[in-house]
Specification:
This protein is an alpha+beta fold. It has helices at 56-59, 89-98, 134-138, 176-188, 228-242, 252-266, 288-298, 347-351, 357-362, 365-375, and strands at 2-6, 19-26, 32-37, 66-72, 80-87, 102-107, 114-125, 143-151, 196-202, 204-205, 211-212, 215-216, 225-227, 244-245, 273-281, 303-309, 342-346. Helix 4 packs antiparallel against helix 5 and helix 6 runs parallel beside helix 7.
């Protein structure tokens, strides 16, 4: 809905009120729980707010009463009530259809009555849209296809030395790369029916003597897929014995490879796959603009990129790739990313806090998944129910 007000009472002395709306639903004991709040509009008695979205799970029935309060914002947190009203979603829809306003009221000290104010609430836009949840999709056949890319640049240190980030411990203690693969892979594999995962390395000198920025971790010239998380771990250990660490740190080739797979899936009839690429790296990406170009191009595809930073490098510049500040990535041609598809997490920060690497990495994944599905108007299709044939 798009909500606006007119002729609100002014609660400020030297300027006009700074109004915002708070919408609450009634709970069983008669109290009200806030479910939605608009932004504050400064110095305006006829405000119009940005669209608000009320999920049906928040208000229940369209006929349930909602408390709509208009406040004058104060930075101290002691906001002043301008007026209130009780309306159901059905009644708000009626205001929209009839193009009429509803008057706010305010408690009056006289005989416990409410004073009707001249200020009114209008519903300028109203639409209902069925929104599916992440669980709706994955429980109806949609899958997350897991992919991994491992950093084989020389800055990781010689794998034979115990101070290397790639050191394989004789007592089976996992290094940072192994921890990231295990922790993330074990969660995502449950959303992938065949559990065959493409796995690549980058920044390493492969047995033929060339430095590759996207080579199959299993050493196969044909397929990059391995079986399960255990297959990734085995391929990683094997690659450390055959690949020489080199450089520089380039993300572009592996992102483009993952994007190519996602694009092929998008063009298939069975469009029920969403790809999740995990990049594990110890250093700052060298090809930052090429990486941004690849991510902007991939933002139109069913793909998310999770990046784990291991070791003690300064990853500040990596935050540019993770558009958490609200600024979308731009390509070198000026194209803006359709959506944010990156989540970056430095592993050292996670191990020192209360939240796990998996929680931090996967926090934005359902939202990125839903953003893509909704932008394409892709709906979960109920799985066919198979009934056993009756015997005769």
């Amino acid at each position: 809905m798009v909500l606006r007000c007119s002729r609100l009472d002014n609660k400020d002395v030297f300027s006009k009120s700074d109004p915002f709306l708070r919408i609450s639903r009634m709970v069983e004991n008669g109290d009200y729980i806030p479910i939605c709040k608009t932004e504050v509009i400064n110095d305006n008695l006829n405000p119009k707010w940005r669209p608000v979205c009320l999920g049906g799970h928040k208000f229940g029935s369209k006929d349930n009463p909602l408390l709509i309060e208009c406040f004058d914002f104060n930075s101290s947190g002691d906001h002043v009530l301008i007026g209130k009203m009780q309306k159901s979603v059905t009644e708000l829809e009626m205001l929209y259809r009839e193009k009429t306003g509803a008057n706010f009221v305010i408690p009056s000290t006289r005989q416990r009555q409410e004073k009707v104010l001249k200020g009114q609430l209008f519903v300028d836009q109203y639409c209902e849209k069925e929104q599916f949840s992440f669980i709706d999709y994955v429980s109806n056949g949609f899958e997350l296809n897991f992919m991994v890319a491992v950093d084989f640049t020389a800055s990781n240190g010689n794998p034979l030395h115990s101070d290397s980030l790639h050191y394989i411990d004789a007592h089976c203690r996992l290094n940072s790369y192994q921890k990231a693969i295990m922790e993330v892979g074990e969660v995502i594999q449950f959303y992938d029916s065949d559990r065959r995962f493409p796995a690549w390395g980058f920044g390493g000198k492969i047995p033929d003597g060339t430095v590759s920025h996207c080579f199959n971790l299993n050493g196969s010239p044909g397929t990059s897929e391995v079986a399960g998380v255990e297959g990734i771990m085995d391929a990683y250990g094997s690659a450390l014995r055959s690949v020489t660490l080199s450089g520089p740190t380039l993300f572009g080739p592996v992102i483009n490879m993952a994007a190519q797979m996602a694009a092929q899936s998008l063009s298939s009839l069975n469009n029920t796959k969403y790809y999740v690429l995990l990049i594990i790296t110890d250093g700052v990406v060298t090809d930052i603009q090429e990486t941004m170009n690849a991510l902007v191009k991939a933002s139109d595809l069913p793909l998310s990129v999770l990046i784990v930073g291991v070791g003690n490098a300064d990853f500040t510049s990596m935050e540019v790739l993770d558009a958490d500040n609200g600024r979308r990535l731009h390509s070198s041609t000026g194209r803006v990313a359709t959506r944010d598809i990156v989540q970056f997490v430095p592993m050292r920060e996670m191990h020192s806090g209360q939240i796990s690497v998996v929680q931090a990495l996967l926090e934005e994944l359902p939202g990125q998944f839903l953003h893509f599905m909704r932008s394409r108007d892709i709906k979960p299709q109920p799985l066919p129910t198979h009934f056993p044939q009756a015997s005769t």
